[in-house]
């Protein structure tokens, strides 16, 4: 069975380590998902949104890592908006277990933030929301 392709949206200024943790989990033997580093590492200028849109269109689901400053990360909100426009499934993942993780501004009120556990990841990425 083909693995689910996942785009990871995260706050580049504060949460790059969290993205690396998720990439590490994708390499586990029983992982049901593939992550490539599709992150856009350039300033928010020019056509970065179109590059993000193309990458988001090419995946099955968008994982949004929510950290302490995600509410001010304009790139994360833009990527969530693109996922919504493209009708891609996405989910919010709490980056820190015992901290006040912030939701991106573009998240809908009904969007739940899930605890970062292996079982949750397998369910969320497998479409079991």
Structural notes for this entry:
This protein has 129 residues and is α/β, with parallel strands linked by helices. It has 4 helices and 5 strands; from the N terminus they run βαβαβαββα. Helix 2 (48-57) crosses helix 3 (74-85). 34% of the residues are buried.
Q: How helical, in percent, are the residues?
A: 25-40%
Please tally the β strands and state the result.
Answer: 5
Q: Strand order of the main beta sheet, please?
A: 2-1-3-4-5
- End-to-end gap: 20 Å
Unreliable residue stretches: none
Give the SSE order as H and E letters: EHEHEHEEH
Attribute tags:
single chain, 129 residues, alpha/beta, five-stranded parallel sheet, 18% strand
Report a brief summary of the structure.
With 129 residues, the chain is α/β, with parallel strands linked by helices.
Present the secondary structure layout.
Blueprint lengths: L3 E6 L6 H11 L6 E3 L12 H10 L3 E6 L7 H12 L3 E6 L18 E2 L3 H8 L4
Parallel strand pairs: 1-2, 1-3, 3-4, 4-5
Helix pairs in contact: 2-3
């Amino acid at each position: 069975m083909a693995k689910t392709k996942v785009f990871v949206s995260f706050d580049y200024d504060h949460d790059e380590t969290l993205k690396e943790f998720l990439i590490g989990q994708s390499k586990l033997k029983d992982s049901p998902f593939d992550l490539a580093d599709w992150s856009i590492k350039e300033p928010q200028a020019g056509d970065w949104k179109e590059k993000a849109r193309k990458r988001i269109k090419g995946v099955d689901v968008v994982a949004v890592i929510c950290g302490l400053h995600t509410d001010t990360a304009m790139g994360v909100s833009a990527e969530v908006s693109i996922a919504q426009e493209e009708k891609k499934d996405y989910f919010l993942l709490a980056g820190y277990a015992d901290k006040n993780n912030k939701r991106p501004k573009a998240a809908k009120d009904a969007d739940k933030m899930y605890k970062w556990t292996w079982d949750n990841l397998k369910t969320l990425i497998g479409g079991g929301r």
